[in-house]
Amino acid sequence: MSIKLFVAEEHELVRAGIRRFVADSDIKVIAEACCGEGVLNSLKEHEVDVVTLGAVMPDMCGLTVLGRIKLDHPDLPVLMFSNHDNPNLIARSVALGAAGYLLKNCPSQRLIAAIHAAARHETIWTRDELRRVTGALATPRWSMKGNVPLTQREAEVLIGLSKGLTNREIGHSLNISYETVKEHVQHIFRKIGVTDRTQAAVWAVRNKIDE
């Protein structure tokens, strides 16, 4: 029996590459989407075994799409597909329930093996990947409404941080200085009780700060 694959990726060239990689295997691409809303709408119409999901979508963050998929289809395996070996993105993918995280330049056999494993509901997380985020996943699950009164600006900075943006990129997006962002980041770390950006990213996911 073939594995029914949903390919969610903004770039046609990447979607075509995945189709080519799996063409001679028992994996059949039965649906595609190039934006987050397209993914969510198409999943209402197609029964699939595995989703490959781009970390970047033109209308919303791929991790936001992941969270919504897992909310509506908690048992559907989702493999994140990204250009970036970013520990923040990896940690958030783990926290949101992704079956694995693949780089777009991975060998075709790695992709095919990952899809097969995901279809069997097996994790493809490597020990190295999990070791990198173990500390972050142990971050206490404190409530946003209870013990941690973040300001609106701090929340905005934390959202940018959890998306893997640098301080300069956050500053540019919010029209504030690099030094101001650094100060906000230190305040955030102190308030939520973490020591690095990866832990902060997982804390943001668990407390739904980006929703």
Describe the structure.
The protein is an alpha/beta fold. It folds into two domains: 3-137, 3-Layer(aba) Sandwich (Rossmann fold); 152-206, Arc Repressor Mutant, subunit A, CATH 1.10.10.10. It has ten helices and five strands. The chain has helices at residues 12-22, 36-42, 62-72, 87-96, 108-119, 127-137, 152-162, 167-174, 178-192, 197-206; strands at 3-8, 27-33, 50-54, 78-82, 100-103. The chain has a five-stranded parallel β-sheet, sandwiched between helices. Strand 3, helix 3 (62-72) and strand 4 (78-82) form a beta-alpha-beta unit. Helix 7 (152-162) packs across helix 10. The chain starts with a strand and ends in a 5-residue tail after the last helix. Residues 141-146 have low confidence and may be disordered.
Main sheet summary: 5 strands, parallel
Stated plainly, the CATH topology of the largest domain is called Rossmann fold
The whole-angstrom Rg is 18 Å
Strand content: 5-15%
What's the pLDDT, averaged over the residues?
Answer: 86
CATH H-level name of the largest domain... which superfamily?
Response regulator
What's the domain count?
A: 2
* Shape type: elongated
Q: Please report the total strand number as a whole number.
A: 5
* Overall SS class: alpha/beta
Order of helices and strands: EHEHEHEHEHHHHHH
Count of alpha/pi helices: 10
Order of strands across the main sheet: 2-1-3-4-5
Q: What's the helical proportion of residues?
A: 40-55%
**CATH class label of the largest domain:** Alpha Beta
**Termini gap:** 38 Å
Q: So, CATH architecture of the largest domain?
A: 3-Layer(aba) Sandwich
> Uncertain runs with pLDDT below 50, 5 residues or more?
141-146
